[in-house]
Amino acid sequence: MSIAQKSPIQREVVRSDLKESGQPNTRFLQNIWYFAAWSADVLQEPLARLIIEQPVVLFRTREGDVAALRNVCPHRFTPLSMGKVVGDTIECLYHGLRFAPSGQCVHNPHSETIPKAACVRRYPVAERDGIVWIWMGAAELADESTIVRYPELNQPDLFTYTCGQTMEMPLSYELMTDNLMDLSHVAFTHKTTLGSEGLVPGQTEVREEGDSIWCLRMAPNTKPAPSFSMSGACSEDDLVDYWLDICWDAPANFYLTSGHAPAGQGRYHGAQIDSLQVLTPSSATQCYYFFIHFRNYRRDDDAMTQELAKFIRQAFATEDEPMIASVQKHMGGRALEEMKPVLLTCDAGAMRVRRARERLLDLEANSGVLTERRE
Ligand code: FES
Ligand SMILES: [Fe+2]
C-alpha cells in the first residue's frame, strides 16, 4: 500500500510510534531532487547513501553515466554497495547476481534463467553543475527542468574553488536548516573563525523571491571575521562592511554570499567568499552536509585554497556540530513548536523556511502522488 492510500488516522499512528521512540516525527519531501553526491565522488565503484530513509547505491557506467539503485539485493537483502561494478552492472557480493542501471537483473550465475522478481528500484538521476541529483519520488514525475541551478559553480574567471566536501552529520536537517537561516549565531558560535561581533546589531532582512527565501545580513563598519583576515582579504585592524546573505531553496539547498568591503562601500565591493551548502536528510536525526567555497581574491594561492577549505570544515565540525547535537539531544524528538521556544528577531528567516517547507509537505501529502515505500 502506498503512503498516499493510508487514511490520515493510520498515518498519525505511524508518526506517533516514531515519537514514542524518542525520534522526531520528521516528514520528507519525496517528489523533489536531492543532492546525492558530488559528481567527482561517483566512480566505477559503488557509493552507498541513505536518502530520506531509503538505501541507495550509486555507480558510474563505462560511458560515464550515473546509475542509482535501491541498495538492497532482492535475493537475501545484502547491500549491493558491498559488491563491485562489473562493466555496466553491479554485482552482489553474496551470490553474484548482477543488476543493470535499469534495476533489472541481467546475470544469474546459478541458472540460465533470471527470476522475474530479480530487479531493484531504479532512481532517476541527473548531473548539473558538478552535482549528482537524485529523484526519490514517483519516477514518472521526475522533471530535470526543476533542478535548482548554480551557474556560480562554473565561473573560473571570477572565482577560485575549494574541492566539494561531504560530511555525515548526526543531526536533523531541520535543525541544521534553522542554523543556516539564522547566521546571527556566527557572531557567537564562530567567534574565532567566521564571526564578527558587528553581525548581531547588523541589519537583517528576509525576502521571498519566487520559490527562494533570502535572509540578508549586513554589519557595517565592523571588525573583520578571522576567515577573511587569515586568508589575506584584509588585515585584522581594518574596519569593513561585512555582508552575509543566504538563500534557501527546497528541500535544503543554500547559496551563501559573504564578503568584506572597505567600511562605507557596502555589498559586493570587496573580497567575497561564496558557498553552496546543501543538506540531504538520511533520517530524522542524520543528514549529509555537502559544501564548496569559492573566493574572488588571492586567486592563484593554492595553499590558501586548501587551508581555507580545512579552516571552514573545522568550524562546521567543531563549532556547529556539537551545538546542534546538544540542541537535538535536549529536544528528545519533540517538535520545535511543541516546546514553545522564545522567538527572537534573528529567527525570522528560519521560521519563514519552516512554514514554506510545511506548505510543500502538505501539498505533496494531499496530492496523492507519493511514491510507494518498499522496505
Ligand atoms: S544476496 Fe544478492 S545474490 Fe544472493
Ligand atoms: Fe554555523
UniProtKB/TrEMBL annotation:
* Positions of the Rieske domain: 33-134
Note the Gene3D superfamilies from the entry: Naphthalene 1,2-dioxygenase Alpha Subunit, Chain A, domain 1 (3.90.380.10), Rieske [2Fe-2S] iron-sulphur domain (2.102.10.10)
Transmembrane portions of the chain:
none
Spell out the InterPro entries in the cross-references. Answer: Cholesterol_7-desaturase, Rieske_2Fe-2S, Rieske_2Fe-2S_sf, VanA_C_cat
Q: Which UniProt keywords apply?
A: 2Fe-2S, Iron, Iron-sulfur, Metal-binding, Oxidoreductase
The answer on whether this UniProt entry bears the keyword Iron-sulfur reads yes
The yes or no answer to whether the keyword Oxidoreductase is present is yes
PANTHER family per the UniProt record, alphabetical: 3-KETOSTEROID-9-ALPHA-MONOOXYGENASE, OXYGENASE COMPONENT, IRON-SULFUR DOMAIN CONTAINING PROTEIN
Q: What is this protein called?
A: Phenylpropionate dioxygenase-like ring-hydroxylating dioxygenase large terminal subunit
Q: What is the scientific name of the source organism? A: Caballeronia udeis
